[in-house]
Design brief:
Length: 194
């Protein structure tokens, strides 16, 4: 390759590298940003549906379809709750620059969905009402980061305050993050409506 050709090729290669690096970002957070930036109306409409409903499942499946640009980056777990949580997390961090105020006094009684299939979702939403500051801290962390590991214990403690008696409920980290993100989005929207 001649020196002149090489001089032309290097800037072109350097221009491609940042775009290629950005395309390698994967996971629920990258998906949430892509989905909200790509079709905010569809992303917001998903969160307006009742979790677990056929409408919600179909909308989440459509948004996370592997054949779409956003669906290709979500990662292995493309379940309804992870899709909803990724979108809620993105909308939340875009909308609210600061954490909600810490609770003063006893939290209001929590009313779950009543659906036994949504116990994890209900517990994560309840945890938000018990410690919204800890929930905010978790949602603002990068997945897999040291900050996430530091934020998780306070959220797990809040989940424990919502779990009846000696009940054992299992969450994956992705499920917990997703439930907390959507619970926090709903919680803050409810506070703003007051």
């Amino acid at each position: 390759m001649t020196k002149a050709m090489m001089m032309l090729a290097v800037p072109a290669l350097l221009a491609i590298l940042p775009a290629a690096h950005a395309q390698n970002a994967e996971g629920p957070a990258a998906f949430g940003k892509c989905a909200v930036d790509g079709d905010r109306a569809a992303a917001t409409a998903l969160l307006a549906t009742r979790i677990g409903s056929g409408e919600s499942k179909n909308a989440a499946k459509k948004l996370a379809d592997k054949k779409t640009a956003c669906g290709a980056i979500i990662g292995r777990d493309r379940g309804e709750e992870v899709v909803r949580g990724a979108i809620a997390g993105q909308l939340y961090t875009e909308t609210y620059a600061a954490a909600p105020a810490a609770l003063t006094g006893d939290p209001a009684p929590f009313q779950g969905s009543g659906d036994p299939n949504l116990v994890q979702y209900d517990l994560a939403s309840c945890a938000v009402t018990r410690d919204p500051v800890a929930a905010d801290a978790l949602v603002r962390t990068a997945e897999g980061s040291a900050e996430e590991r530091a934020a998780l214990p306070a959220v797990v403690n809040a989940v424990g305050r919502c779990t009846p008696g000696s009940a054992k409920i299992g969450f994956s980290k992705a499920q917990l993050r997703a439930g907390v993100a959507e619970g926090l989005w709903t919680y803050r929207k409810g506070m703003a409506a007051r």
